[in-house]
Amino acid sequence: MSASDSVPRVGVWLIGARGSVATTVVAGCAAMTAGLHPPTGLLTETPPFTGSGLPALSSLVFGGHDTVDCPLPKRAEALAAGGVLPHGLPTAVSAELAAAEREIRPGGPLPGDTRSEEDLIAAFAADIRSFVRRCRLQRAVVVNVASTEPAPTGDALPPSSLYAAAALRAGCAYVNFTPSTGLHHPSLRRQAESLGLPFAGRDGKTGQTLLRSVLGPMFTQRALTVRAWSGTNLLGGGDGASLADPSAAAAKNAGKERVLADTLGTTPEGEVHIDDVPALGDWKTAWDHIAFDGFLGTRMVLQTTWQGCDSSLAAPLVLDLARLAARAHERGLSGPLSELGFYFKDPVGQGPAGLGEQYARLVGFAERLREASSGGSGFADGRDGPSVEPADGSGEQW
Prior knowledge:
Elements lengths: L9 E6 L4 H14 L26 E7 L5 H10 L7 H4 L1 H9 L1 E3 L10 H18 L4 E6 L14 H11 L3 E4 L12 H6 L3 E4 L6 H14 L3 E11 L1 H7 L2 H19 L7 E5 L6 E11 L5 E11 H21 L4 E2 L18 H19 L25
Parallel strand pairs: 1-2, 1-4, 2-3, 4-5, 5-6, 6-11, 7-8
Antiparallel strand pairs: 7-9, 9-10
Helix pairs in contact: 1-2, 1-11, 5-6, 8-10
């Protein structure tokens, strides 16, 4: 056995594996592992997480599902041309991009696909299991970074829930970084908890809502009355195109509204508008207009503008979540990882909505992982998680 084989490797199976976020994740992890760039934006590389037993960045192996066929290296070149990735990075990490590309499998359902839900779940789960065996992985985490889908209207499982069911059937921890349904479908949530697997989500908090989760508590703590809070998002790329669908935009806005309701204790007037501007590519501008009352009813306004690149903001969070979910699985944790609410607009489980309180819970989680890593009693059960390979027939309940 070589030295590299002696280090346990962890798989990160990305749903939407050829998209902007996934490509930035793979290229960014390779760049940091090679020492080409510092881990800016990666909380799991900061002092509070030292010694928590998280898998090393160099131990992560990438694969995934996607319905598009643009190869990952070519996608990385396009992102570099658009200023999302540093110039020359796709060439510098071409081997890592090619390796991840070889592990990407066709997703679905595609137009005209006649496979049943069971057929799709079984096929997706088989892909994940094969990835684990082929790459000799200790375990794998499935992370949904695909474009937002509309909320389901019937009993049928939407694509995000098919992938989530496949992740659980394959014995993997699951993270939903999108506002899509995933494990929130009523036919999946209870079964997910019964399988003893950890899961987290949903909808990564990268920009406008990140700022809202800071400003909302500020108004509450200063006893200032917010009368109205309106916002506008201008964005392009795949997200802009998918969110041009009003039903997909409604799913996205639900998390933004929840943050305000939870931090202010009431829902102010106003709403968020999302506009697709293809010329912006992977960049977006988010504007908020906040009308509030001060002492003696004095009317005042706060306006904020957030300009950033969603892929660059999301990628370090995806890496954080994959490492934390893998470690939670290793420690035998199951059910919703509410301590990871810091990362989400609409987090699963019970927890605070303000960013400061969420960060404190996250740091506490890292401390408990550290105690567990050193043989302490960081968790009540103290068990290591099961191997990623499920027993034969483990998927029958799906």
